[in-house]
Amino acid sequence: MNTPATLPVIQLKSDRTPGHPWVWSAQVHKPEGRLPPGSVVEVVDAKGRFVGRGFWNGHARIALRLLTNQPDESIDADWIARRIGEAVQLRRDWLQLDGASDAWRVVHSEGDGLSGLIVDRYADILVVEYFAAGMWKFREAIHAALLAHFPGARLYWFAENHVQKQESFDCRSPEPPQPVQVHEHGLAFHAAPGLGHKTGFFADQRDNRRRFAELAKGRRVLDLCCNAGGFAVHAMAAGAQSAIGVDMDAGILEIARANAAANHLDIAFEQADIFDWVRAAVARGESYDAVILDPAKLTRDRNRVMDALKKYFAMNRMVLDVIPSGGLLLTCSCTGLVGEADFLEMLRRVSLNAGREIQILDVRGAGPDHPVRADVPESRYLKAVFCKVL
C-alpha cells in the first residue's frame, strides 16, 4: 500500500473535524483525478490541516470511512492485523466469551475501528462479511490475521449484492462450509453459514435469551418471529411450562425443530403469519404469559422509518391481546435506523391505545461482543425491551 507521504489527499469542505467516521460525498471536494473505490487516502480540512486517513469511494453514499486520526499511523496490513488482534483480545481476555459460547462476533465494524468489516465465529467457522471496497482490498491481510488467532478455522466470506453494487467491488464467495453445531450457555444450536438463512443463529441476542429464560420460568411462552427458536429453547431449558414458536419461514423452522431436538426439549413450531396466528389464538381464548416478539429488520431506507414504526406499533398492539395482566413481553427491533427513543415512544402509544400499562423493566441491546463507538450511534442497532404488562 502507499506510504502516508504519497497518499492521495481528500479535502473536506469544512474546517471542523467530522463528528462521525462516515463522511458523505456532499461534505468533501471530489479529487480531480479518478481514485479507485477503496483507495487509502489522507484527509485534510478546509484549511489544509490533517484530519486523518481512511478509505475513499467516490461511487458510494459514504464517500470517506475515517479509520485513524493519528498522523504517524499507516493503514496497511500491519494496521489491520493489530486492530483484529485488539478485537479478539477484547472478546477473549476482557469478556471471557469462550467460557459462555463458541459463537460470538469477532469484529463489529466501526465498534472495533474496522469500518466495513464484520466477522462472526461459529465453532471452527469464521464468517467474514464485507461492507466496503477498502476492506475487500485488504482481504488477504484480514484472512491471515484471523487465522493467526483461530488456527485451522474454516473461512467463509461474502458481501450482499446491494453492497457490492453500491461500493463497486466484486466479492466471489467460496462454497459454503458444512453446517456446524455451536453452544451457548450449555445449550446446542445449529449454524449453517451461507445456506440461505444467514447462519440460522444470531449471537447478538445471547444475553437476552438467557435473561428472558430466567424471567419465563413456569410460564407459557410464545416466541413470535422465532427464527431458529433460540428464545424458546432457552426458556424451556430453564423451566418454562410450555413453548410455541411461530415464523413464516418453513426452512428456518426445520432448524428450530432440530435445535429443540438437540437439547431434548418438547417445543411446538408452527408456520404462519404472526397476525393471523395471534388472531386465531385470541378467537380460541388462548393466552401466553411470556411473549417474545423479535421481527426481522423492517427497513434499510431512512425515508421508510415511519412506515417501520407503524408496523412495530401494529405488532406490539396485536400481541397484547394474548398477554394476561402480569405477563412478560420482550419486544425487539434490529432496525438500526429506528432509534431507542422512537421505539420506546411507539410502546407508549401502544399502551395508550390498548388501555393497558406497560412497565418497562430493562432496555438492552446486543451483547458486549457488539461494541458501540460513542460517535457511531447507528451501530447500536438492536433494542430489546423487557416489559411487564398490566
What does this structure look like?
The chain is of the alpha/beta class. Helices cover 29% and strands 26% of the residues. The protein contains ten helices and 19 strands. The protein has helices at 77-94, 133-137, 139-149, 161-167, 206-215, 230-237, 250-262, 274-283, 305-319, 340-354, and strands spanning 9-12, 22-24, 28-29, 39-44, 50-56, 62-68, 103-108, 117-122, 125-130, 154-158, 180-184, 187-191, 220-224, 242-247, 268-271, 290-293, 327-333, 358-364, 383-389. The N and C termini lie far apart (61 Å).
Distance between the termini: 61 Å
Helix tally equals: 10
Strand order of the largest sheet: 15-14-13-16-17-19-18
* Average residue pLDDT: 94
Query: Which radius of gyration do the C-alpha atoms yield?
Result: 23 Å
Assembly type? single chain
Uncertain runs? none
Encode the helix/strand succession as letters: EEEEEEHEEEHHEHEEHEHEHEHEHEHEE
Biggest beta-sheet profile: 7 strands, mixed
Number of strands: 19
Query: What portion of residues is helical?
Result: 25-40%
**Strand percentage:** 25-35%
Helix-strand makeup class: alpha/beta
